[in-house]
Amino acid sequence: MPMNKRIFLRRGRFFRKTGARFLLVVAGLTCLFSAAPSLARAGFTEVELGCFKAFYLPAQPRPGQALIVALQAAPGIDPELPALKMIFCDRDFMLEPVSGGWRGVVAIGLEVRPGSYRLGFKGLMTEIPALSIIVAAHDYGEQHLTVAGEMATPTLPETLERIQRDREKLSCVYAGSFPELAFARGLETPLTTAITSPFGRRRFLNGAPRNPHGGVDFQAPVGVAVPAA
Asked: How far is CA 41 from CA 25, 35, 45, 57, 187, in A?
């Protein structure tokens, strides 16, 4: 009987519950400003930002969720649009130039508390007013696990060295950002097996609180092929 292992899905974690609606909306963003009213029909919130117009979905994102943003260019803006930068909670996110404006995705961190936040824009000589985003409260629940002491609080030198190497590699991977949305088709879960640990739950290891779970764990036997999300 093969041992079980958990498959982690992290970078696509905030797409899990928005699912088909997110994919439909992203597909609609391809021809964004040739049919701007369709964004309102798709559930986007529309806001005037001076001479610009912003669209975003969902209206009140929760911690750990994706905020889809579209910005319509003001009259007179050069048609050769540059990439823009969004700033949310001191983190930078890119806006990809498309016909008539820009589009992008903001990741609302799991650590963000409910409340009103400023979404700023940079990259043009013309000032773009900030957008006010309301982050809604959401309870992902708790998970209490009893594990070996070394798993909860590693002390072995080789384990600590591996953790440090992994952190350095992840820092390099996540340091870069590009304006283009790097997918042309819909997103899928990598497996259709049971989810052993859902996204966002606050974990307690041997009674001690840890960070919320930043991934989705899928049950699968060792050696199973896992397609890209």
From this structure: 10, 11, 10, 12, 22
